[in-house]
Automatic annotation (TrEMBL), chain A:
Biological role: Plays a role in vesicular protein sorting.
Chief location category: cytoplasm
Protein known as: Vacuolar protein sorting-associated protein 35
Ranges of biased composition (kind: Basic and acidic residues): 713-723
Organism of provenance: Branchiostoma belcheri (Amphioxus)
PANTHER family reported for this sequence: VACUOLAR PROTEIN SORTING-ASSOCIATED PROTEIN 35, VACUOLAR SORTING PROTEIN 35
Similarity section: Belongs to the VPS35 family.
UniProtKB/TrEMBL annotation, chain B:
Function: Component of the commander complex that is essential for endosomal recycling of transmembrane cargos; the commander complex is composed of the Csubcomplex and the retriever subcomplex. Component of the retriever complex, which is a heterotrimeric complex related to retromer cargo-selective complex (CSC) and essential for retromer-independent retrieval and recycling of numerous cargos. Component of the retromer cargo-selective complex (CSC).
Protein name as annotated: Vacuolar protein sorting-associated protein 29
Any one Gene Ontology cellular component term annotated for this protein: cytosol
Organism phylogeny: Eukaryota, Metazoa, Chordata, Cephalochordata, Leptocardii
InterPro entries: Calcineurin-like_PHP_lpxH (IPR024654), Metallo-depent_PP-like (IPR029052), Phosphodiesterase_MJ0936/Vps29 (IPR000979), Vps29 (IPR028661)
PANTHER family: VACUOLAR SORTING PROTEIN VPS29
Alphabetically ordered keywords of this record: Cytoplasm, Endosome, Membrane, Metal-binding, Protein transport, Transport, Zinc
Domain Calcineurin-like phosphoesterase: 1-156
KW Amino-acid biosynthesis (keyword) present: no
Membrane topology: Peripheral membrane protein
Signal peptide as annotated in the record: none
Any one biological process term the GO annotation gives: protein transport
Any one GO MF annotation of this record: metal ion binding
Length: 828, 181
């Protein structure tokens, strides 16, 4: 064979989609042609010929080759064309043509599909022109459609019936007292609402059967495709329910007695999961909420009988949510009082769960979620309903006989979390949540991580809404609830937690402390004791975060008692107890090997004690200061930390005015001693210089006061500044001596300038031991030493410091303060 | 140029957070610098400040967790040299002349200090002193009437306008003080 011989190309295969398009196109072509012919004949009043063409057109609907989507398109095109026929026939009747003949004529059309479509069309025309035989015609039509048992074709046929009869269904109540038929007269049987209901229910039942039959057609491997096709067709079946809901005479009673039972019977008996799931939701969507409220029991009972693979949970939740919304509407009537909505749902949900043994636990919990939402939306004041749901949930878990805690990532755990968060978020008040007796027990089913997450959620909710906890009992309850944040748990993982996460959690608990607050101080004290018990068991890592806020809370309480001293004659003893409490609490931190923190807390305690001023407060303040010193001496070893600590001790002590001389003196001495024992010379110099203030503005209470009758009273006099100028100078001179021992010249000069500034400070405060000569001497020394320093950035700083000091003196010299000393003789 | 000056938050030891009304006013992106007098006390508060502005300076307070904050700091903003120190090291606490000693040593135009939980803004010997108080209204043993407050400095050339925000009752009250170099 030569290469030039052309080889016959094979026919290209069409894809299934292209096949469908081709088939549909061909069918639509036929429709186009035949409908054109039909209209032409009708125009020429050639009815029989017109009907013949209509029949040809309708024969396209006999196909088995089209998918539901394509069949639908074809069906729509043909329905449109049949409209012309309908209009023509109606017109004919107007003109007097006996439509009854036609009804007979059309029965002889060839195949059943065209025959039935034509019958429906003609039948509806007949009803429209003469109502008296409506009832019979409707009955006829709905029965005749049984002739088509092919699911797809049958569904569309019956849909055509439903659409065509849309405006023809009788919608009037039955005539209770019909007049007897007179002899010779035709009985008027135009039908009533009962007939419409029967009509639609029958159509619905037949359509549902056809729809269900589709499930079992064809090969098992095509099941997924079939189910998809079924879903595409579901609206055809659902339209029957819509039609029922549109009938005005379908009131609550008829719905209860006739409509719903008819629907439910078909739904339950068909035993098909797809149909059941769709139709139950359809019922909820299509009929008004008022109807649902009156038929909850039968509806929910049916739910229990549905096919095992139906997602009953979603159906019930859809209903609950709808009713909850209905109850919530401001302009709506709300739930009628005689309907115990919550009780009904509660019972029926229990029935459903019992009936369906293999319902997964998370679905059961989901149902509880919807119940709790119902309770909160419809009966917000009835906390007991919410508690009932939680109680049911506890029972559910009890029945499961769980061996271990619910894993954090499991669906059940997630649903349970969802459930518990709802009351938290609804009430935004943890105190109300605490009233739910079964809330805390549900925590026990979670694993460690979930318990912790829920606890964090609770605490965050309190902080966000500023919910204060005003009773010791509630404090106890809450700290028990969130115990996974407060204390080590038996099921805690062995590894150390991430330090950042841990510190974030504990800071949360620290902040939570500020919410523990009662208006009543005695109650507040009990709250603090309760908190102390819980947090005290938190372990060394936690107490660093949780005990300090507790201590400060206690300080604040002492001040409150002082404010109320007029009303409470036991206030002083109570303050004593509070400071004992603080002492104990701070000591717990020492036992846990903290030192800087308890030192600062003792200093704060001493300050607070001094300000509150209860009976015996001087002793307590002294004790707190001693404890601070002990910690300083025994535990602070880093030299930088030492300087910072002693500076703080001195600064704090300088502010205190509660001590008499016999207590003030040893503390002063300790300060000076500690300062002089600092390791580095510059630190020593600075420490000792700061001590100078203790001798000036440090305060003591002098002597014993006396009562009117001459007896000595324990009250001391008003605090007075020491203003011991000589001792001040001793400190500063000692500082100078230490500075002289510094080997680094620039440090030395720096220290000189600092001491010079302190001289000036005391001179201006009126210390007579400082005079202009002293100042001149030091200024001269500094002036000598400055030039010897190597130039550097540091030297610039030191220079500027000195210049600023001189500038200050100049200012004071030229425009002296009215009460300030004279700077006469100053050499600057 | 806007500079936020605040401190003595004492979270969580003495307070659970800044007042909501303050937080609403502090919007990220509007402030160029933050000067914090210390006593945050934890990293959480520091991280919060970092969300408001990227340039954050903190000095060490007596209850700060982070031991590496400096005791003092000098920052230049525009034409102003600003000194920052917590103030618990200044004896006596809050004494003007003692603070002046620090000002002279650091050689600054403006000295910012805290610790007393009391707002101050005054001129002294041609230098300016600011104490932003406590942004959370935290407890202070020596002062029973603590009001939450913070300060915003608007620095333009040689003038700084200081706005102090105070939470009095339930309302935020603002005052304005001007200082020229």
């Amino acid at each position: 064979m030569s290469s030039e011989d052309s080889v016959k190309q094979p026919q290209t295969q069409l894809s299934p989609q292209e096949e469908q398009e081709k088939l549909l196109d061909e069918a639509l072509q036929v429709v186009k042609v035949q409908s054109f012919q039909m209209k032409r004949c009708l125009d020429k009043t050639k009815l029989m010929d017109g009907l013949k063409h209509a029949s040809n057109m309708l024969s396209e609907l006999r196909t088995s080759m089209l998918t539901p989507k394509s069949y639908y398109e074809l069906y729509m095109a043909i329905s449109d064309e049949l409209r012309h026929l309908e209009i023509y026939l109606c017109d004919e009747f107007q003109k007097g043509r006996k439509v009854a003949d036609l009804y007979e004529l059309v029965q002889y059309a060839g195949n059943i599909i065209p025959r039935l479509y034509l019958l429906i069309t003609v039948g509806v025309v007949y009803i429209k022109s003469n109502e008296s035989c409506r009832k019979d015609i409707l009955k006829d039509l709905v029965e005749m459609c049984r002739g088509v048992q092919h699911p797809l074709r049958g569904l569309f046929l019956r849909n055509y019936l439903l659409q065509m009869t849309r405006n023809s269904l009788p919608d009037c109540p039955p005539n209770e007292d019909p007049e007897p038929v007179k002899e010779g007269e035709v009985e008027i049987r135009s039908g009533d609402i009962k007939d419409s209901i029967d009509f639609i229910l029958l159509n619905f039942a037949e359509m549902n059967k056809l729809w269900v039959r589709m499930q079992h057609q064809g090969h098992t491997r095509d099941r997924e495709k079939r189910e998809k096709e079924r879903q595409e067709l579901r609206i055809l079946v659902g339209t029957n329910l819509v039609r029922l809901s549109q009938l005005e005479e379908v009131n609550i009673q008829r719905y209860q007695k006739l409509v719903l039972p008819g629907i439910l019977e078909q739904v339950v008996s068909c035993k098909d999961a797809i149909a059941q799931e769709y139709l139950m939701e359809c019922i909820i969507q299509v009929f008004p909420d008022e109807f649902h409220l009156q038929t909850l029991n039968p509806f929910l009972r049916s739910c229990a009988e549905l096919h095992a693979s139906v997602n009953v949970k979603n159906i019930i939740i859809a209903l609950v949510d709808r009713l909850a919304l209905f109850a919530h509407r401001d302009d709506g009537p709300g739930i009628p009082n005689d309907i115990q909505l919550f009780d009904i749902f509660s019972q029926q949900v229990a029935t459903v769960t019992q009936a369906r043994q293999d319902m997964p636990t998370e679905d059961i919990v989901s149902l509880q979620v919807s119940l709790i939402n119902l309770a909160l939306k419809c009966y917000p004041e009835k906390i007991q309903y919410v508690d009932k749901v939680l109680e049911t949930t506890v029972e559910i878990f009890n029945k499961l006989n769980l061996e271990q805690f619910l894993e954090n990532s499991s669906a059940v755990s997630k649903e349970l979390s969802r459930l518990l968060k709802i009351p938290i978020d609804s009430y935004n008040n943890v105190l109300t949540v605490l009233e739910l007796k079964h809330f805390a027990p549900l925590f026990e089913y979670f694993d460690y991580d979930s318990r912790k997450n829920m606890s964090i959620y609770v605490v965050n909710n309190c902080l966000e809404h500023g919910t204060e906890i005003p009773m010791a009992e509630q404090t106890d309850q809450i700290l028990q609830l969130v115990s996974s944040l407060v204390q080590d748990q038996a099921d805690q993982p062995q590894e150390e937690p991430d330090p950042e996460d841990f510190s974030e959690e504990q800071n949360l608990m620290g902040r939570f402390m500020s919410l523990l607050n009662s208006d009543n101080p005695d109650q507040q004290y009990m709250i603090l004791n309760s908190a102390r018990k819980h947090f005290g068991n938190g372990g060394n890592k936690r107490i660093k975060f949780t005990l300090p806020p507790l201590v400060f809370s206690a300080f604040r309480l002492a001040f409150r008692y002082k404010e109320m001293s007029e009303e409470d004659d036991k206030w002083e003893k109570k303050c004593q107890k509070i400071f004992q409490f603080c002492h104990q609490t701070i000591s717990a931190l020492i036992k846990a090997e903290y030192s800087e923190l308890p030192l600062r807390l003792f200093l704060q305690g001493a300050l607070a004690c001094g300000e509150v001023g209860f009976e015996n407060y001087e002793t307590v303040a002294y004790e707190f200061m001693s404890q601070a010193f002990s910690l300083y001496e025994d535990e602070i070893s880093d030299s930088k930390a030492q300087l910072a600590a002693i500076t703080l001790i001195i600064a704090t002590f300088e502010r205190m005015s509660c001590f008499g001389e016999e207590n003030h003196e040893p503390l002063r001495t300790q300060c000076a001693l500690a300062a002089s024992k600092l390791l580095k010379k510059p630190d020593q110099c600075r420490g000792v210089s700061i001590c100078s203030h203790l001798f000036w503005s440090g305060k003591t209470r002098e002597g014993e006061g006396t009562e009117m009758n001459g007896e000595a009273s324990p009250e001391r006099g008003e605090p007075k500044e020491l203003q011991d100028g000589k001792r001040v100078m001793e400190c500063l001179k000692k500082g100078l001596r230490i500075a002289n021992q510094c080997m680094d010249k620039s440090v030395q000069v720096q220290l000189f300038i600092e001491i010079l500034n302190r001289y000036i400070f005391f001179y201006e405060k009126g210390n007579e031991a400082v005079n202009v000569q002293v100042l001149n001497q030091l200024i001269e020394k500094i002036r000598e030493d400055l030039p010897e320093l190597d130039s550097s950035e540091e030297m610039d700083q030191i220079n500027k410091h000195f210049q600023n000091t001189i500038e200050h003196l100049r200012l004071r010299q030229t425009s002296p303060e009215s009460e300030g000393p004279s700077y006469q003789g100053l050499e600057i | 140029m806007l500079v936020l000056v605040l401190g003595d938050l004492h979270i969580p030891y003495r307070s659970n957070g800044m007042p909501a009304k303050f937080k609403k006013l502090l919007v990220p992106g509007k402030i160029q610098h933050i000067l914090c007098t210390g006593n945050l006390c934890t990293k959480e508060s520091f991280d919060y400040l970092k969300t408001l502005a990227s340039d954050v300076h903190v000095v060490k307070g007596d209850f700060d967790e982070n031991l590496s904050y400096p005791e003092q700091k000098v920052v230049t903003v525009g034409q102003f040299k600003i000194g920052l120190c917590h103030g618990h090291q200044v004896v006596p606490w809050g004494d003007i002349e003692s603070l002046a000693m620090v000002q002279r040593q650091l050689d600054v135009d403006i000295l910012i200090s805290g610790h007393t939980h009391k707002f101050e803004a005054f001129e002294h010997e041609n230098k300016f002193y600011i104490n932003p108080g406590t942004a959370t209204g935290a407890y202070n043993a020596l002062d029973s009437g603590v009001t939450p407050s913070f300060v915003l400095m608007d620095i333009q050339a040689t003038t700084v306008v200081t706005y102090v925000y105070q939470l009095i009752g339930d309302d935020v009250k603002v005052e304005r003080i001007e200082y020229k170099k």
